[in-house]
Structures are given as C-alpha cells and as structure tokens.
Design goal:
2 domains; disordered N terminus; 4 helices; globular; mainly alpha
Length: 120
C-alpha cells in the first residue's frame, strides 16, 4: 500500500502534511468514528453535522448509535425499566444499568449491539 503525503483535510488543527493511504488501498469502505463527551456538550449536534458532511460530500450513509439507547434497549434483560429522558437521575441510572449489563453479559453486549444494532 503506497503512502502519500498530502495536505491536511477539512478539520485539520494545523496545516502540516500528513500521511494518508490512497482510498483504493483501503481494505473496506466502512468508517467508524466515535464521539465521547459529557451530557449537554454537543456530541449529538457534532455527530449530526459530520453525518451530513459524510453523506453530502462523500456518499456515506451514517448510522448514529448512542450507548444510552443500547442500554435502554436491553434494560429488560436485567429486570430494569427504560429510563425516560425527563428523569433527573437519568445519567446515574443509565450508568448503573450499563454496569449491570456488563457484569451480567460481559462487555461484548454493548459491542454487539453497536455493531449490529440489535438486541443481545
């Protein structure tokens, strides 16, 4: 796989050159991009903007997955109910449920749900 030096892209922090593989040399057309941050920090907003750019400029169909949705989808497996958005203790409850799911099923439950978008 030849590596070429190219100018940095759209979201570059500085203007130094970076090494990029030719698109034809990639083993897959899939992209996996993760955003992590505290509630209310604009993660969903940023993910939606990037999704729009990837679709309009590069033809990618983005799928946005939230760990909170995965936890909610599987809450019944540990005898818990879905935590509603208006719940003032939502963050703490989701963290507790996520921990219980990992203890019961291992860390693979969230990975499987994220990759396949399916229930465990």
């Amino acid at each position: 796989m030849p590596i070429q030096r190219r100018q940095t892209g759209l979201f570059a922090i500085d203007q130094r050159e970076v090494e990029l593989l030719d698109i034809e040399d990639r083993k897959t057309d899939e992209l996996v991009i993760g955003f992590v941050g505290p509630i209310g920090s604009g993660i969903s907003f940023s993910a939606n903007i990037l999704s729009d750019i990837l679709k309009s400029q590069f033809g990618y169909a983005a799928k946005i997955l939230k760990v909170s949705d995965i936890i909610s989808r599987n809450a019944g497996l540990i005898g818990e109910s879905v935590v509603v958005h208006a719940d003032e203790h939502r963050t703490e409850k989701l963290q507790k449920q996520g921990t219980s799911l990992r203890k019961t099923f291992g860390s693979k439950i969230e990975n499987a749900n994220a990759i396949g978008g399916r229930d465990a």
